Amino acid sequence: MRPSIYAAALLTGLLATSACSSEVQGTAATASSAVVPDQPPAAAAPPSGMDHGDHNAHHGGVVYMYDEMHYEVVLAPDGHHRVYFTDAVREDLPASVASSVTLTVERPKAEPEVLNGAIDESGESWLLTGRPVGDPATSVRVAFVTKGSEYWIDVPFIPPTQ
């Protein structure tokens, strides 16, 4: 496991949940060189006439942002995970707004486990099922394709709050 993943994921989570600034994507070096301002810059404001949505988890997971889309990652210790998508004001989007959703679970001293997602019966989230997770040092790479662009981010394994 890469030792700086936790710092990068924590910083990314703070950026995504506090100021909804541009999403950090890629390597830990990119995230660790970011500066967290005391106040979000004026350029981070939502488009005029559109209120920006909250960053509260609607499903007990952790909310991140990519472009103008939010996504909530619900990582469960039993290995049954979900990914939900919402728009800039946190209105639900169909799961089909993204494709090729995968989670790569990286446990300490173990080979990474790649989980390929499938859209649930209601069409509201992606389901990904793998082995149970018990080690708090586990990290997860969340990856998906939307609007023709591939995206990924490494995040710490944070169990649901609900």
Verbal overview:
- The structure is a single chain.
- The relative contact order is 0.20.
- It contains two helices and nine strands, in the order ααβββββββββ.
- It is 12% helix and 33% strand.
- The protein has one domain: Immunoglobulin-like, CATH 2.60.40.
- The chain has helices at residues 5-18, 28-32; strands spanning 62-66, 69-74, 80-86, 99-106, 113-116, 118-119, 125-129, 139-146, 149-156.
- The longest helix is centred in the first third of the chain and has 14 residues, at 5-18.
- Strands 1-2-3-7-6 form a five-stranded antiparallel beta sheet. A four-stranded antiparallel beta sheet has the order 5-4-8-9.
- By secondary structure, the protein is mainly beta.
Number of helices: 2
- Kindly estimate the percentage of residues that lie in beta strands according to DSSP: 25-35%
Large-scale geometry: globular
The main sheet comes to:
5 strands, antiparallel
Level-2 CATH architecture: Sandwich
Number of domains: 1
Strand order of the largest sheet: 1-2-3-7-6
Helix content: 10-25%
Number of beta-strand segments: 9
User: N-to-C SSE series?
Assistant: HHEEEEEEEEE
Low-confidence stretches: 1-50
Please state the CA-atom Rg, rounded to the nearest Å: 15 Å
| Separation of the first and last Cα atoms | 28 Å
Could you name the CATH class? Mainly Beta
Helix vs. strand class: mainly beta
Per the CATH scheme, the topology name is: Immunoglobulin-like
